[in-house]
Backbone:
């Protein structure tokens, strides 16, 4: 598999099988991702991998908070505003889910709240003293993880919902206070029979986003 093939094969998986992910595969993914470039080789990522009973406790903690309607509090804030172009692309997302997934689209929110039933979640943090430039490096690292996962036959989805309740994550993963949680990536084997995984979002044509100058 070459890079182009991995880029086209990768897509957000919203329902996973319960099959555990072999630790050797998770290790291989993270070893490959360690080659991600970063500013002055700072490698700002700090990684916490939740599986098994630990992830079960995190999931249960989240579901209790959902049931109690506790306000979400991700440590890396969500955008408060979107550009017109971004809003236009977002509008294409929801009709696509309904069109391609049928009845499965009704489960979209519930699957988010259940962490997509993933058998493993990779949580990425960085030191609080670092700036937004290090978030760029974290994004590159996350992409490396997702592409390396494809090579291992694994599926992924990066999601803000995985970061909604930092207090639960800090308790279960023993995350020190000097680290800020940035993003989570659910990883595992895709449930290819589930209708929600039939949806693959479109991408803007190059002429809309790329500007060449001779």
Residues:
């Amino acid at each position: 598999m070459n890079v182009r093939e991995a880029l086209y094969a990768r897509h957000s998986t919203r329902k996973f099988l319960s099959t555990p992910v072999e630790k050797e595969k998770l290790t291989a993914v993270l070893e490959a991702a360690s080659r991600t470039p970063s500013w002055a080789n700072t490698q700002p990522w700090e990684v916490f991998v939740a599986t098994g009973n630990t992830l079960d406790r995190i999931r249960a903690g989240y579901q209790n908070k959902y049931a109690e309607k506790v306000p979400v509090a991700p440590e890396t804030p969500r955008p408060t505003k979107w550009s017109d172009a971004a809003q236009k692309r977002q509008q294409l997302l929801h009709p696509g889910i309904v069109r391609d997934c049928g009845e499965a689209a009704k489960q979209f929110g519930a699957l988010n709240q259940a962490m997509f039933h993933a058998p493993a979640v990779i949580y990425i943090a960085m030191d609080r003293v670092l700036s937004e430039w290090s978030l760029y490096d974290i994004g590159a690292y996350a992409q490396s993880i997702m592409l390396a996962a494809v090579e291992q036959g694994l599926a992924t989805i990066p999601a803000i919902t995985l970061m909604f309740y930092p207090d639960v994550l800090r308790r279960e993963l023993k995350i020190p206070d000097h680290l800020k949680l940035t993003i989570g990536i659910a990883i595992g084997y895709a449930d290819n029979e589930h209708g929600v995984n039939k949806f693959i979002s479109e991408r803007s044509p190059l002429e809309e986003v790329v500007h060449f100058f001779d």
